[in-house]
Amino acid sequence: MRIELHFGDITEYTADCIVNAARPSLLGGGGVDGAIHRKAGMALSEFCKTLGGCSVGEAKISPAFNLPAQNIIHTVGPRYLFKSESEIQDLKNCYLNSLEIAKKHKFKTVVFSNISTGAYGFPKDLASTISFETVTSFLLENEFPEKVIFCCYDVENLELYLNLIKEKI
Ligand code: AR6
Q1: What is the pTM of this model?
Q2: What is the CATH number of the domain that holds 129?
Q3: Contact call for residues 134 and 128 (beta carbons, < 8 A)
């Protein structure tokens, strides 16, 4: 029971950590990133200015300021441009590097958004398989985070994750 599938707005979670699909500047943008920055307040972008940006596949942590969550892990997903192995590896790294931060901080619950599946154009079926496999393997080998929630905001992603969970049980 270390995986949960939810349908909803990631800015509403009281978890110790939510994962943002950010842009390299970390200064906010559209989609989930925009929703997080709007609700967290200006203090978030002020703090993010001190982080020195973030490369594709990397992850950085900040407080969550006005959000109910405690912390935000910002990771920059790949754009799906060349349909290449390196884009797949980059998306995997987003999940792995976020999970490593959660492990280091001994976070109990990490809530992931569906990284790269909006503006960055990654095919949702491929992205869900990468994310699900990366997260489940990591949880098998690590005590922290205790739980991962996949937070879907559209029905297509929700159905894809549901099918992946069904295949597992
Ligand atoms: N809660 C949870 N999920 C959400 C929310 C929300 N409030 N809003 C959107 N999503 P995207 P990307 C889902 O475009 O593809 C930004 O401008 C949405 O349904 O937010 O990684 C950044 O600044 C989709 O499945 O992120 C970057 O420049 C998922 O979040 C760029 O877009 C990801 O869509 C990042 O693009």
Answers
A1: 0.98
A2: 3.40.220.10
A3: no
